[in-house]
Amino acid sequence: MNESDADYLSQGLTAAGFSAVPDLDQADLAILVTCSVRQNAEQKAYGRFRELKAWKRARPGRAIAITGCMANKEKDRLYERLPDLDYRFDMRQYEAFIQDLQGEYETDPAQTGGAMLQHGLTAYVPVIFGCNEVCSFCIVPFVRGTERSRPLTDVVEDVRRFALQGVREVTLLGQTVNSYRDPDTRAGLSDLLEAVGNVPGIWRVRFLTSHPRHVHDDLLLAIRDLPRVCEHLHLPFQSGDDAILKQMRRRYTTDEYRAIIAHARDLIPDLSVSTDVIVGYPGETEEQFQKTLALLEEIKFDVVHIQGFSPRPRTTAALHPDDVTPPEKKRRINILLDAQRRIAEDANRRWLGRTVEMLVERAEDSEVTGRTRQNRVIIGAAPLGAQTGTVRRVLVEQATAWQLRGQVLN
Length: 410
Prior knowledge:
Blueprint: H1 2-15, E1 29-34, H2 39-57, E2 63-68, H3 69-74, H4 77-81, E3 87-88, H5 94-105, H6 109-112, E4 122-126, E5 128-129, H7 140-144, E6 148-149, H8 152-164, E7 169-173, H9 189-197, E8 204-208, H10 217-225, E9 232-234, H11 242-248, H12 254-267, E10 272-279, H13 286-299, E11 303-308, H14 326-349, E12 355-364, E13 367-371, E14 377-381, E15 391-399, E16 404-408
Parallel strand pairs: 1-2, 2-3, 4-7, 7-8, 9-10, 10-11, 14-16
Antiparallel strand pairs: 5-6, 12-13, 12-15, 13-14, 15-16
């Protein structure tokens, strides 16, 4: 989401007459797009700001702006804590911020021709902002607000513009993306996936992040039947213990989660499933952690993102003692990582001898790198070469926990 915010800021600033520069020393304005989902993300933002202070003071007229979740959480208190801060703004009103800058800097849009930011092969497109779930550990509803879906036509227009710039794969974004509803027609995510997949030049469509409560057959059938939608589902389970899930306010049980994954895999051949896990939630016992490990080994995810619990202000979980020590959280994380490494290697080995589709993201000499439709990294030997941005077939000959290797077919 932060990368998407940065893209939209760059697009808007360029259209307003600003020019992006490759080197910070050439810039007049630096914007930090921040996150506050975990404490270490905020610390990184403050560290980066300290680095920017020397840059600002080196030449008169330079300015620093902050936006994103941390800016929304701290609000104008940031000006007291960071005296060198010039602007703080909410990404929900980023267009008004750009308009104010345009007047202050007296930029001329004609100089840039309203040019659009150049992308690579992939782009992130936000389709729904905020979240209504109010999970006990999550600060997003407080800093991003409640759910607000963009009109389907606006999303499609963004994708169309990206496709004209050479983008071939788009990822539709939302904190709970499968809650998407067009404000006027009430069209859901499956309808949006179909509309985006029909944009000329777009070859792959993905979406992040789904909530188990909103996985229904219309979405699963869209993954199975729409040719541009990739066979990949990211579905966080967070904990393998029902008592912890209840405290987290996730509003599903482990059995319900198992049933969703089993149904999805029955419907969609070669579906890859990734997930998120939190360890060390307040009060989590060793027995409860072992249930998380058991669920991970049972479902056999393709990719798992694991984080130690981090108390966030204003959340319910922050009211409870953070009683799992950092060393213990690290131990539990490492246990899950070791198990997932074995699971991922077994999952990748199932592709040996099969032919997969690769979107070529990088081509160097006789070797190309890209991703499969299931979002696996794949490296292919291509004696005759293969251009970046093309789709090629690869015969898989080797597999590790992290990647596939094979021969690009003519």
